Every structure is written in structure tokens, then in C-alpha cells.
Amino acid sequence: MLHKQLNAFPEDFLWGGSTSAYQLEGAWDEDGKGPSVIDLANHVEGVTDFKVASDHYHMYKEDVALMAEMGFKAYRFSIAWSRIYPQGDGAVNPKGLEFYSLLIDELLKYGIEPIVTMYHFDLPYALEERGGWSNRATIDAFEQYAKTLYENYGDRVKWWLTINEQNMLILHPGSIGTLNENMTDPQKELYQQNHHMLLAQAKAMVLCHQMLPDAKIGPAPNIGVIYPASSKPEDMLAADNYAAIRNWLYLDMAVYGRYNHIAWSYLVEKGYQPVIEEGDMEILGQGHPDFIAFNYYTSQTVGESKNDGNDYSHTGDQHEIVGEPGAYRGSVNPNLQTTEFGWEIDPVGFRTTLRQIYSRYHLPLIVTENGLGAFDKLEDDGTVNDEYRMDFFRKHIEQIQLALTDGVEVFGFCPWSAIDLVSTHQGSSKRYGFIYVDREEFDLKELRRVRKNSFYWYQKLIASRGEIR
Ligand code: BGP
């Protein structure tokens, strides 16, 4: 739809940036922090681990000052569960509690709204040893952890996100560490874990509303429009299958407390359906989000499954291998260009995604990740000329404005990432930030912070409420 006149971004729009604890903080075993599954996982060869990352744990004041200089209205970060509960449950670590308290105060000092992700991939290793999400006791541990966060930060934090990209944890478990190959039926087990995470999320939402009536809470999956590889009806059906399994399973449950019927029929067909205990559906029905947060990097394209052993293939995200015999086959989109890392760039798909989510759920939306990973270069004159990043954001922000004009309620944009950090699989050389962190994969140098060109660009954009792009 073409609009002659575009709606302006709301005055109180939450312009900001996003990060996660294990990718940014470092100090992986300091001040009583317990190890997480990320700390103890085998990390990809040839790239750095997460032990020091961007050393934000020690440099948070400088980092927050830079965010304030950019004009951030909000900052979305995650709390490392094992910094608060080194064993996942049991005794609290006061130093861990103190760190986030100081960080929150520092943000509020500059009028930056903290948006807290409670769990961003880094399950405490002690819980993993007891079965991780396969063990229903992890649901209780998460509820206890949530309660501790509400008690300690609820006076200052108004925005809460439950679980980052639960759908990616389930769909790409090998890459994030939720897959236990020793299990007899790992795939079935994953959907049991998924069920437990959904219960944990519902309980955290209920508790938040009980304890903090003024706070708002929502899920944070990765959502992207799914295109059919052609106008063939069978391809459209395949796209619909994948959308149900990748996107709507998670949001239908978070919002309506029920399994999406297409996703459920897939689980039954494959023999993956989880055991649902008595009372589970009541708990799931009680959790209601106040908004939906979602991460968007790219769209996906799939075609009809041929069931010939070749359904799996790379799609929009070069890292994501997509396909499911009998349901859909991964495909590439010939209409899109890709990033240096092979991820398809699809700003228009962003608008479609915003519209689709809003049409289904009618809840306010916030974008908690969107961004471009690139090999940025620090020039001899001290500049980082990341014009490609500005171009990427320009195009995506334009689509938010179009979606706003389409009537979609969007209240914030927190792109990935506020500052350079370590990529989930591709090390510290794959950079996303507005602020450059001067380190290499294996040479930490001084971890100096440098304002990239995109820093000044984003600063102007925020000051003009999204007008000057
Ligand atoms: C999302 C994760 C982030 C971040 C981002 C970029 O899926 O929530 O933690 O890693 O993707 O991905 P990558 O680091 O693989 O480039």
C-alpha cells in the first residue's frame, strides 16, 4: 500500500539499542558468577570465546555514557541468570545482584529506560547438569529467579522480556547448546523442553503482574515473514507450515495459551508432541503478555517438501539450515541481496512481519533486535566508516514508519547491537555496534571504545525522532 502521508514516530518512542550478557560482559567467572551452558560449551574454532567479550562488566559506566550521548531512550540488555544464582537456584549471589542494580541506576541517571531480558541463551550450567529444560524443576528455578529479579529491580525496571528467541533455541539447538545428543529421541526431547520453557514463561508473566502491577512483560522470539518459493499453491502451503512451526507456535502460546493447531499437527505427525501434565494448560492460559517484543534480521523462503532427502537447505540466514521433510523445503530468495555473512537483507519483509504480528495479536510491538553484522575497519585516522550499516537501518526504519502508517502499534526500536560484542557463532570480528570495541579475536588490546560513523548518524536520527535518516 502506498501512503502519501506518513505517520510520525510517537513522541515517547523507545529508540535504543540491544545487547546480551554473555556476548558483552566478560568477567565470566568473577564475583561469584557460576558458569552457564555458553561458558562451558565447545565454542567455534578460530574465533574468540566469551570470557572477556567487550568487558562491559568493568566498563559499563563508559558504555552507558556513550549510549546516553547517542540519545538512547531505552537499552535492552540481559541479566546473566548464573550471576544471580550461580547454581541456577538455591543461594543468591549478592555481587551479581549488585552489578545489575548499579547498571540500572546508571541508565536511569541518564533517563534511559532499562528493558531487561531475563534469559538470553545462557542457562546456568548447574541446571543443565540436572537435566536443563528437560527437567521440570527448571521451571521452578526460573520462577524463583524471576521473583528475585522483580524483588530487586521491580522498583526501577518497567519493561521485562522473558526468554530471548525461544524458537531459535528449539529450531537450532546444536548451535546454542540445548541439544543433548545422548538423548534417545533428541528432537522429541526438544519439544518437551519447549513446553517447559513455555510454562516457565507463563509463570513469570503471571508473577510479574502480581508483584509489579505497573510493569509490562512480553516474550521475545525471532519472527520473520515466510515467503513461498513460488506462487504454486503447494509452496504457499509449505510457507504456511513453516510460519506455524517457526513463528506462531511461540506467539500463539504466549498470547492465547494454546498450541497453534498446524504446529501441533506437525508435532503429532512426527511423534514430537510433548507430555502435557494436568494443570499445564491452565497455567499456559493464565500468562498474558502486555506487548510483543521480537527480533528481525531477515525473511525466510521455503517451498514444498519433496521428501527426497534434500529438503534441508540454507535460507535467508546463511547460518540457518531450514527444511522439514513432509512440511517444507528450504529455499533462497532470488529477489534479495545478502550481507557479507550471507544473510538476506529484506526491509520490506520487516514491514510485512510487523503487520502480520499485529494483525494476529493486536498487542503493541517493540523490535528488540535488527542489525547488520560486518567486518568493520578502524581506520588510521580513528574513524569507522560503516555507511553500509546506516543504509541498512535507514531502509528498515523507513519500513517501521510505513507499518506505523498501516496502523501497526510499534513503541520501540532497539537494534542489535548498542555496542560491538561477540557474535553468537562468528567471533568478535563480526561487528554489529554503533560503538566500536578495539579488540581482535585473540588480542584484546585495550578494548578502547570508538564512535563509528553510524554512532553520529543514529544520534541525529534519535534527536529528530526518526525524521532525519
Ligand atoms: C540473535 C541473537 C543474538 C545475536 C544475533 C546476531 O539470534 O539473539 O544474541 O547473536 O542473533 O547473530 P550472530 O551473532 O550469530 O550474528
TrEMBL record:
InterPro entries: GH, GH_1_N_CS, Glyco_hydro_1, Glyco_hydro_1_AS. One of its GO terms (molecular function) is hydrolase activity. Keywords: Glycosidase, Hydrolase. The active site is at E369 (nucleophile). Pfam families: Glyco_hydro_1. Belongs to the glycosyl hydrolase 1 family. This is Glycoside hydrolase family 1 protein. It comes from Paenibacillus tritici.
